């Protein structure tokens, strides 16, 4: 089970463009996922992201299936991955509100946009 405080290190507000630190952050993510059921889907997603970046491909398009697999896995182990799930929920809500404001329309909270 992930320990308290790892989320803070994993999701620090500083963004560093140094490749070594980026790789370290990805390894921290894999470590955070632990030896549990979601480690392999997490590794596949990270590998996909690295490959997409290397090949200058769109990460969201290329790796969306991996992201979906991780989300399903984490939802099936909610007690263990609550910090990550809470972040994802907050991010989706923030994106939904931003789109509503930018487009001047109301976007339903669930069901219409899969990745919001």
Describe this structure in words.
Helix 2 runs antiparallel to helix 3, helix 3 runs antiparallel to helix 4 and helix 4 (59-76) packs across helix 5. The protein has one domain (6-103). It starts with 5 loop residues before the first helix and ends in a 13-residue tail after the last helix. The protein has five helices and no strands. The protein is mainly α and 116 residues long. The protein has helices at 6-10, 19-33, 39-54, 59-76, 78-103. 9% of the residues are buried. Residues 112-116 have low confidence and may be disordered.
* Poorly predicted spans: 112-116
**H/E order of the elements?**
HHHHH
The global form is globular
- Percent helix, as a range, is 55-70%
What is the CA-based Rg, rounded?
15 Å
Largest sheet: none
Total number of beta strands: 0
Ends: how far apart?
A: 27 Å
Percent range for β-strand residues? under 5%
Mean pLDDT: 79
Give the total of domains: 1
How many DSSP H or I helices?
A: 5
Helix/strand class: mainly alpha
Question: What descriptors fit this protein?
Answer:
116 residues; mainly alpha; GCK_dom
In brief:
The protein has five helices and no strands. It is mostly helical.
Give the helix/strand layout:
Blueprint: H1 6-10, H2 19-33, H3 39-54, H4 59-76, H5 78-103
């Amino acid at each position: 089970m992930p320990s308290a405080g790892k989320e803070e290190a994993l999701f620090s507000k500083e963004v560093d463009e140094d490749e070594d630190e980026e790789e370290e952050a990805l390894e921290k993510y894999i470590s955070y996922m632990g030896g549990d059921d979601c480690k392999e889907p997490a590794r596949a997603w990270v590998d996909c992201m690295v490959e997409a970046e290397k090949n200058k491909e769109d990460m969201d398009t290329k790796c969306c299936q991996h992201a979906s697999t991780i989300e399903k896995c984490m939802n099936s182990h909610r007690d263990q991955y609550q910090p990550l799930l809470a972040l994802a929920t907050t991010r989706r809500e923030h994106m939904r509100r931003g789109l509503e404001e930018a487009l001047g329309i109301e976007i339903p909270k669930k069901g219409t946009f899969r990745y919001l």
